[in-house]
Design a protein that fits this description.
The structure is a homodimer of 361-residue chains. Chain A has 361 residues and is an alpha/beta fold. Chain A is built from eleven helices and 17 strands.
Amino acid sequence: MDLYPVIMAGGSGTRFWPASRAHYPKQFLNIIGSGTMVEETLNRVKPLAKEEQTIIVSNKEHHQILHTLLGENRYVILEEPLGRSTAPCIGLAALYLKKQGILDKPMVVLPADHFIAEEETFRKILSIGCMLAQDGDIITVGIVPTRPETGYGYLERGEVKRKIGGVTVYDIKRFVEKPDQKTALRYLNSGKYFWNGGIFIFTPKTILEEIKLHLPSLYAGLQTIEEAMDTSKYQEVLLSVYQYLPSLSIDYGLMEKTKRTVLSLPGDFGWSDVGSWDSVYDLRKEKRDKEKNLTQGDVILIDSKSSLVFSQSDKVVVGLGIKDLLIVDTPDVVLVGNLKKSQDIRKIIEELKKRKQHRLL
Amino acid sequence: MDLYPVIMAGGSGTRFWPASRAHYPKQFLNIIGSGTMVEETLNRVKPLAKEEQTIIVSNKEHHQILHTLLGENRYVILEEPLGRSTAPCIGLAALYLKKQGILDKPMVVLPADHFIAEEETFRKILSIGCMLAQDGDIITVGIVPTRPETGYGYLERGEVKRKIGGVTVYDIKRFVEKPDQKTALRYLNSGKYFWNGGIFIFTPKTILEEIKLHLPSLYAGLQTIEEAMDTSKYQEVLLSVYQYLPSLSIDYGLMEKTKRTVLSLPGDFGWSDVGSWDSVYDLRKEKRDKEKNLTQGDVILIDSKSSLVFSQSDKVVVGLGIKDLLIVDTPDVVLVGNLKKSQDIRKIIEELKKRKQHRLL
């Protein structure tokens, strides 16, 4: 089947500071050990679609990084002049496909910075989703929750719609925003909720119609961009439109409002959004040494355990009698933190902003 | 009174790795915060003796470091071609003084890498010691013990010999080597022991006679060196003699054997041999922040306490939620360790030797 992966690689974040920076975000890091996250994401969909059918939406600022990583390639790379969350990103990819005369083929929207353990299962789910999307429905992959996570949005599922190839297709009743701890626990125990992993499948026709309906200003912007496509004014128009677009996620801007049928396929393939150093430590269990240390680079550990040590500079990092620590050595910063509290990295970012040490962000 | 400080600056050690290295030992570090230890030691005796009466015995290997630190100066610098512990070092200084015709003036032997809080008291004790030494006795400064330390030698004191200027002079019965824990506790509780802080006062005549008596091969070596002094062969002869000298401390080689009267003055002036990173942390209480962190260099600490963080490179060191940690960042190594176990640094040295990473030693 002809399908069009859309890899959303324009994100930025601070949770992997100091390895990730404003100018070098997480999707370009090799923290999972087998390649950068964007490359892993591309490789994962390679059996499903040719390079020239695969769209990467990235930030113009990361042009050089992406080209250095991918080298000679046939991917379609769409560059956004500014990050404006997922709705404009998806709109731009749909617009590109429309321009190519592709309106009724499924596009598979995937974040560039997630981890998936069981790739075969993942591809099977996507293939089934693509079949369903051709009828005009919106397909999401619902991640089967494993803990009462408060950091994700949830999908409340309705009744079983049908079964295809052993996979149950659920009707989705509603998209819900990040819950508090109590609500998250209730969701988990009810067995009726999925995590929203940001994986969507629809046709360009479907999503453009939905944008027109629920995000009319984005739609107007996309029309302006469409007119400038293939002209010398494209970059200029793109920038002027993006400047005034609000940052809106596809979930909040559209999925929570749509009247269309939203179906969900259960994604039980070892998913992680790799949201913190701690999650990298969890994901790479098999790479830990017998003292449960996970190391990368030139590292010497003595009497040390349960620590994550990444040396990304040419220094040797030596740990002596340490436990549950996160050490990240980069060319201009050394971070030493409590691994179990790696979500507190945002506090460092706040402190650096307060100190106006912008070069370290 | 004419007296001759002899600053023993030839030591090497590993306890301040990675700030100290084989080619850059502790006495040349500024870890106490007010200057390098050798400079502090020199400044401490400045009110007692002119620069040209002050002898620094150092290792030839550290020639450049010493000259860079001291700049233009009038100190007498005696360079040893190899480190051979304290007996040859003291012998060489005594020989130099003898050559200058100084045989009956006190020489005050001081390690270059100790800390002393109360400098006035320290100088008063040394002055009294110098008066006593002119009679041919050997004077030691006994450090009043504050804990059952197993890392030092001890002095067992005998009866009170006399009092001078409010200071009690004790007869020393014997020098004892580093005790085990139980013995150290007994020494502490008995009130009859001092720590041997390696501070000695005697005349060149006294010490050369003692060397002749108890260390005849060192004495023979010194005679050979004496003959070559002021000739073009000096360096060559010095090397050939030193090569075959055993490493012998003045304590073990001589003090434990002497039949002379050994007197001790109690040294209760806030002494520390600054033997570990932990001791630096203890000594610099007043420099800690309100979370009991002691930092030097470009350091940012968040939710962190009771840690010692030294940045000696141009990196920023960031600590997040850490406690009781030692972090030392140098241009080629980052050490992260348990501050309370900083004596375990020797384990790193062993590991580096095993891995043949000699450039890091």
